From TrEMBL:
Keywords: Aminotransferase, Transferase. SUPFAM superfamilies: D-aminoacid aminotransferase-like PLP-dependent enzymes. Gene3D superfamilies: 3.30.470.10, D-amino Acid Aminotransferase, subunit A, domain 2. It comes from Actinomadura keratinilytica. It holds the Pfam family Aminotran_4. This is Aminotransferase class IV family protein. GO terms for molecular function: transaminase activity. It comes from the Bacteria.
Protein backbone atom coordinates (compact mmCIF):
# COMPACT_ATOMS: atom_id res chain seq x y z
CA UNK A 1 0.00 0.00 0.00
CA UNK A 2 1.41 3.38 -1.01
CA UNK A 3 1.05 6.30 1.39
CA UNK A 4 -1.18 9.06 0.09
CA UNK A 5 -2.17 12.49 1.33
CA UNK A 6 -5.18 14.70 0.70
CA UNK A 7 -5.93 18.23 1.88
CA UNK A 8 -9.60 19.13 2.28
CA UNK A 9 -10.66 16.10 0.26
CA UNK A 10 -8.38 16.35 -2.78
CA UNK A 11 -4.81 15.69 -3.85
CA UNK A 12 -2.94 18.86 -2.84
CA UNK A 13 -0.95 21.18 -5.02
CA UNK A 14 2.52 22.27 -3.95
CA UNK A 15 1.10 25.64 -2.92
CA UNK A 16 -1.44 23.99 -0.62
CA UNK A 17 1.25 21.92 1.10
CA UNK A 18 3.59 24.87 1.68
CA UNK A 19 1.86 26.34 4.79
CA UNK A 20 2.09 22.99 6.62
CA UNK A 21 5.69 22.50 5.48
CA UNK A 22 6.93 25.99 6.33
CA UNK A 23 4.95 26.91 9.46
CA UNK A 24 5.19 24.34 12.25
CA UNK A 25 1.90 25.25 13.93
CA UNK A 26 -1.01 22.86 13.97
CA UNK A 27 -2.46 19.82 15.68
CA UNK A 28 -2.75 16.14 14.94
CA UNK A 29 -4.47 12.89 15.75
CA UNK A 30 -3.37 9.42 14.62
CA UNK A 31 -5.67 6.41 14.47
CA UNK A 32 -5.61 2.79 13.40
CA UNK A 33 -8.37 1.91 10.94
CA UNK A 34 -9.53 -1.68 10.57
CA UNK A 35 -12.40 -2.62 8.27
CA UNK A 36 -13.07 1.13 7.97
CA UNK A 37 -13.66 1.50 11.71
CA UNK A 38 -11.72 3.18 14.53
CA UNK A 39 -11.50 2.67 18.28
CA UNK A 40 -12.49 5.83 20.13
CA UNK A 41 -13.59 7.81 17.10
CA UNK A 42 -15.49 10.21 19.37
CA UNK A 43 -12.32 10.90 21.36
CA UNK A 44 -10.30 11.59 18.21
CA UNK A 45 -12.91 14.04 16.94
CA UNK A 46 -13.22 15.71 20.34
CA UNK A 47 -9.43 16.06 20.51
CA UNK A 48 -9.34 17.78 17.13
CA UNK A 49 -12.21 20.10 18.03
CA UNK A 50 -10.71 21.13 21.39
CA UNK A 51 -7.24 21.69 19.95
CA UNK A 52 -8.66 23.71 17.07
CA UNK A 53 -10.55 25.96 19.47
CA UNK A 54 -7.40 26.58 21.48
CA UNK A 55 -5.03 27.10 18.54
CA UNK A 56 -7.29 28.71 15.95
CA UNK A 57 -10.23 30.08 17.93
CA UNK A 58 -12.99 27.98 16.35
CA UNK A 59 -14.33 24.45 16.56
CA UNK A 60 -13.71 21.77 13.94
CA UNK A 61 -16.76 19.93 12.63
CA UNK A 62 -16.47 16.17 13.16
CA UNK A 63 -18.56 15.43 10.10
CA UNK A 64 -16.09 17.33 7.95
CA UNK A 65 -13.19 15.33 9.39
CA UNK A 66 -14.95 12.01 8.86
CA UNK A 67 -15.80 12.91 5.25
CA UNK A 68 -12.14 13.72 4.54
CA UNK A 69 -10.95 10.48 6.17
CA UNK A 70 -13.41 8.37 4.20
CA UNK A 71 -12.45 10.10 0.95
CA UNK A 72 -8.73 9.65 1.56
CA UNK A 73 -9.20 5.97 2.44
CA UNK A 74 -11.09 5.34 -0.84
CA UNK A 75 -11.42 1.53 -0.97
CA UNK A 76 -8.73 0.89 1.68
CA UNK A 77 -10.12 -0.99 4.69
CA UNK A 78 -7.07 -1.19 7.00
CA UNK A 79 -4.64 1.69 7.50
CA UNK A 80 -2.88 4.11 9.79
CA UNK A 81 -4.56 7.49 9.36
CA UNK A 82 -3.01 10.77 10.46
CA UNK A 83 -5.18 13.89 10.51
CA UNK A 84 -3.20 17.14 10.60
CA UNK A 85 -4.94 20.49 10.97
CA UNK A 86 -3.17 23.71 10.02
CA UNK A 87 -3.96 27.19 8.79
CA UNK A 88 -3.73 27.43 5.04
CA UNK A 89 -4.22 30.44 2.79
CA UNK A 90 -7.99 29.99 2.81
CA UNK A 91 -8.43 29.21 6.51
CA UNK A 92 -8.06 26.04 8.54
CA UNK A 93 -7.23 23.01 6.37
CA UNK A 94 -7.55 19.31 7.16
CA UNK A 95 -4.78 17.07 5.81
CA UNK A 96 -5.32 13.31 5.89
CA UNK A 97 -2.44 10.92 5.33
CA UNK A 98 -3.11 7.22 4.78
CA UNK A 99 -0.29 4.75 5.46
CA UNK A 100 -0.05 0.98 6.04
CA UNK A 101 -1.58 -0.29 9.30
CA UNK A 102 0.62 -0.72 12.38
CA UNK A 103 0.35 -2.99 15.42
CA UNK A 104 1.73 -2.64 18.93
CA UNK A 105 4.92 -4.53 19.75
CA UNK A 106 4.42 -7.74 21.70
CA UNK A 107 8.04 -8.05 22.82
CA UNK A 108 9.30 -5.93 25.77
CA UNK A 109 10.43 -2.49 24.62
CA UNK A 110 13.45 -0.46 25.74
CA UNK A 111 13.17 3.21 26.73
CA UNK A 112 16.04 5.70 26.95
CA UNK A 113 15.41 8.51 29.45
CA UNK A 114 15.95 12.15 28.43
CA UNK A 115 15.32 15.36 30.31
CA UNK A 116 12.58 16.98 28.26
CA UNK A 117 8.96 18.01 28.62
CA UNK A 118 6.81 18.78 25.60
CA UNK A 119 5.54 22.37 25.38
CA UNK A 120 1.74 22.64 25.63
CA UNK A 121 1.70 18.93 26.51
CA UNK A 122 -2.10 18.51 26.61
CA UNK A 123 -2.26 19.12 22.83
CA UNK A 124 -1.05 16.61 20.26
CA UNK A 125 0.60 19.32 18.17
CA UNK A 126 2.99 19.35 15.24
CA UNK A 127 5.98 20.62 17.23
CA UNK A 128 7.74 17.26 17.43
CA UNK A 129 11.38 18.05 16.62
CA UNK A 130 12.64 17.07 20.07
CA UNK A 131 10.59 13.88 20.22
CA UNK A 132 11.91 12.79 16.82
CA UNK A 133 15.47 13.79 17.74
CA UNK A 134 15.50 11.98 21.07
CA UNK A 135 13.72 8.99 19.55
CA UNK A 136 16.41 8.69 16.88
CA UNK A 137 19.16 8.98 19.48
CA UNK A 138 17.46 6.28 21.52
CA UNK A 139 17.27 4.06 18.45
CA UNK A 140 21.00 4.48 17.77
CA UNK A 141 21.66 3.21 21.29
CA UNK A 142 19.48 0.15 20.81
CA UNK A 143 16.29 1.44 22.44
CA UNK A 144 12.80 1.66 20.99
CA UNK A 145 11.79 5.16 22.16
CA UNK A 146 12.68 8.00 24.47
CA UNK A 147 11.25 8.37 27.99
CA UNK A 148 10.59 11.99 28.94
CA UNK A 149 11.47 13.04 32.49
CA UNK A 150 12.07 16.38 34.20
CA UNK A 151 15.19 17.53 36.06
CA UNK A 152 13.97 15.77 39.21
CA UNK A 153 13.50 12.49 37.36
CA UNK A 154 9.68 12.71 37.33
CA UNK A 155 8.25 10.66 34.44
CA UNK A 156 5.70 12.33 32.16
CA UNK A 157 5.36 10.22 28.99
CA UNK A 158 7.34 8.44 26.30
CA UNK A 159 8.30 10.10 23.05
CA UNK A 160 5.22 8.85 21.19
CA UNK A 161 3.19 7.13 23.91
CA UNK A 162 1.75 7.31 27.39
CA UNK A 163 3.34 5.28 30.17
CA UNK A 164 1.29 2.86 32.26
CA UNK A 165 2.64 1.10 35.35
CA UNK A 166 1.38 -1.64 37.66
CA UNK A 167 2.57 -1.58 41.27
CA UNK A 168 1.47 -5.13 42.08
CA UNK A 169 -1.98 -4.03 43.20
CA UNK A 170 -3.25 -1.48 40.71
CA UNK A 171 -2.47 0.33 37.48
CA UNK A 172 -0.85 3.77 37.69
CA UNK A 173 -0.60 6.64 35.21
CA UNK A 174 2.23 9.11 35.94
CA UNK A 175 0.84 12.32 37.45
CA UNK A 176 2.73 14.86 35.35
CA UNK A 177 1.98 17.15 32.39
CA UNK A 178 1.44 14.83 29.40
CA UNK A 179 -0.84 14.20 26.47
CA UNK A 180 -4.11 12.50 27.48
CA UNK A 181 -3.79 9.86 24.77
CA UNK A 182 -6.82 8.31 23.14
CA UNK A 183 -5.74 4.77 24.11
CA UNK A 184 -5.12 5.98 27.66
CA UNK A 185 -8.63 7.42 27.82
CA UNK A 186 -10.18 4.34 26.20
CA UNK A 187 -8.58 2.07 28.81
CA UNK A 188 -9.86 4.29 31.61
CA UNK A 189 -13.32 4.31 30.05
CA UNK A 190 -13.23 0.50 29.74
CA UNK A 191 -12.66 0.13 33.49
CA UNK A 192 -8.88 -0.06 33.91
CA UNK A 193 -9.20 1.52 37.35
CA UNK A 194 -5.81 3.23 37.15
CA UNK A 195 -4.73 5.81 39.70
CA UNK A 196 -2.55 8.84 39.10
CA UNK A 197 0.51 9.48 41.16
CA UNK A 198 4.03 10.80 40.80
CA UNK A 199 6.31 8.25 39.15
CA UNK A 200 10.05 8.76 39.19
CA UNK A 201 12.62 7.27 36.87
CA UNK A 202 14.20 5.41 39.78
CA UNK A 203 10.84 3.81 40.63
CA UNK A 204 10.32 2.00 37.32
CA UNK A 205 12.42 -1.15 37.98
CA UNK A 206 10.44 -1.73 41.19
CA UNK A 207 7.06 -1.89 39.44
CA UNK A 208 5.49 -5.26 38.67
CA UNK A 209 5.07 -4.20 35.03
CA UNK A 210 5.36 -1.13 32.81
CA UNK A 211 3.70 -0.50 29.44
CA UNK A 212 3.50 2.11 26.71
CA UNK A 213 0.15 2.93 25.09
CA UNK A 214 -0.62 4.77 21.87
CA UNK A 215 -2.68 4.41 18.70
CA UNK A 216 -1.02 1.06 17.98
CA UNK A 217 -2.27 -0.40 21.27
CA UNK A 218 -0.42 -1.56 24.39
CA UNK A 219 3.18 -2.79 24.48
CA UNK A 220 5.24 -4.05 27.44
CA UNK A 221 8.44 -2.34 28.58
CA UNK A 222 11.43 -4.52 29.43
CA UNK A 223 14.15 -2.01 30.24
CA UNK A 224 14.72 1.63 30.97
CA UNK A 225 18.25 2.86 30.42
CA UNK A 226 20.52 0.15 31.89
CA UNK A 227 17.88 -1.24 34.25
CA UNK A 228 15.64 -4.21 33.61
CA UNK A 229 11.91 -3.72 34.17
CA UNK A 230 9.85 -6.78 35.18
CA UNK A 231 7.65 -8.25 32.47
CA UNK A 232 4.55 -9.91 33.90
CA UNK A 233 2.69 -11.85 31.17
CA UNK A 234 -0.45 -12.10 33.32
CA UNK A 235 -0.70 -8.34 33.85
CA UNK A 236 0.08 -7.73 30.19
CA UNK A 237 -2.66 -10.17 29.16
CA UNK A 238 -5.09 -8.34 31.44
CA UNK A 239 -4.47 -4.87 30.00
CA UNK A 240 -4.15 -6.14 26.42
CA UNK A 241 -7.40 -8.07 26.80
CA UNK A 242 -9.15 -4.97 28.10
CA UNK A 243 -7.90 -2.99 25.12
CA UNK A 244 -9.04 -5.70 22.68
CA UNK A 245 -12.52 -5.57 24.22
CA UNK A 246 -12.97 -1.93 23.21
CA UNK A 247 -15.46 -1.68 20.32
CA UNK A 248 -14.70 -0.25 16.90
CA UNK A 249 -16.66 2.76 15.63
CA UNK A 250 -17.57 2.80 11.91
CA UNK A 251 -16.25 5.77 9.97
Amino acid sequence: MLARTEIDGHAPSAAEVLPAALVNYGHVTVMQVRDRAVRGLDLHLARLDAANRELFGAGLDGGRVRDHIRHALADTADATVRVTVFRGDGGVSVMVTVRPPEEAATTPQGLRSVVYRRPVPHIKHTGTFAQIHYGLLAGREGFDDALLVDHQGVVSEAGIANVLCHDGDTFVWPDAPALPGVTMRLLDRAGLGARRRTVRLADLPSFAAVFVTNSRGVAPVGRVDDHAVPHDPEIFARVAGLYESIPWDPL
